[in-house]
Amino acid sequence: MKLAIIGGGAAGFFLAINAKEMCPELDVIIFEQHNNVLSKLKASGGGRCNCTNTFAQVTDLKQVYPRGAGLLKKLFKQFGPQDAYAWFEAHGVPLMVQPDQRVFPKAQTSQALIDCFVQTAQRLGVVLVLGKRIAHPKTLLRQNGGSFDFVAVTSGGTPHKDGCVPSLFTFALEDAALHELAGTTVPSARLSIPKTSFAATGALLITHKGLSGPAALTLSSYAARYLADCRYRSPLQINWVGEKNTELVRAQLKEVFASHAHKQIGNVHPFGLSTKLWGYLLKCAQEGTDSSASSKSRHPGLDLTKKRCGELSKKDSAHILQVLSTYPCQISSRVAYKEEFVTCGGIPLSSINNVTLESKETPGLFYAGEVLDIDGITGGFNFTAAWSCAYAVATALSKR
């Protein structure tokens, strides 16, 4: 029996290895159109490879998988995050868990995983063919005149395929003043797209172009199709203090100002905001409701940062509250996130068997990984889905 795997990425190698371990007599060949393999895995996590996640902070898979949560809930019962962790440890890759529950190789390099995959595949007799593009995978099947009993497509996602759009990207903003705060981090901020239900909370990084960090990446995943339809131009609202609602922020500000009545407000830093960001937000508050650094006229008055907390008027407090909880800005374009790339879209899940991941239309044709309409937010979730899908296909093949 022969298996052709189209794509030498994470899902392809994981499928090849598990298929050979379950069925040593199976001939497995990986076809990769480029001259190198596992490139996305190599770039993941800044070269450290965020290979999975403990899911300890996940209460609902829909939180981390905007698309495909239902299918993965079933697949995880057979091979989930804990199984992936155990698999890597058993195959000679010790892992470590970060406080945010992301999992990395203890070696702190993706090369540890690459070596594991390549060396294990070679030891098991998996054949690797580089520089070979397979445009029509189903033609490799015996029933279609080919020489393979099974074909598995693990070619990943690309926005150039029909129905696919980018996911996991950062935002460029039309906000020159905010760009001057590049390098500033916010422990917990909430990003939302007005007049939609799209929102995400997490750490935020201000860049020289706009916004990055977990909050921005998560929102880009949740709103991938919406933002593509908008051509990546959309209003955006920032709550600099995270999930706190307006009334809670108002009460906490009142308490802070009351306890520091004799201090200049510029020297008080509520909610863990940096001196630079707090000073900028106070300037925005002084300018009234226009906090987006636009070309509208300014009305300079007494420098708000010099006022003592006990001297603030109700109007001052209202404007401070407004810029803290509903800071408006405009997304002008998307920015690719480092060398990592994830897509929204792919093979419709309705077209495959939800246990074996075999095509309903073409027996013997399987799919695994990002080629399917499955994608997750940043944090090791996309690789976890790849491991689970690949294992499901290997298991299905072992029963043939």
UniProtKB/TrEMBL annotation:
PANTHER family for this protein: OS12G0638800 PROTEIN (PTHR42887:SF2)
InterPro entries in the record: BaiN-like, FAD/NAD-bd_sf, RsdA/BaiN/AoA(So)-like_dom, RsdA/BaiN/AoA(So)_Rossmann
Organism encoding this protein: Atopobium minutum
Domain of life: Bacteria
Record protein name field: Flavoprotein, HI0933 family
Gene3D superfamilies: FAD/NAD(P)-binding domain (3.50.50.60), Translation factors (2.40.30.10)
Residues in RsdA/BaiN/AoA(So)-like insert domain copies: 165-342
RsdA/BaiN/AoA(So)-like Rossmann fold-like domain mapped to chain residues: 2-395
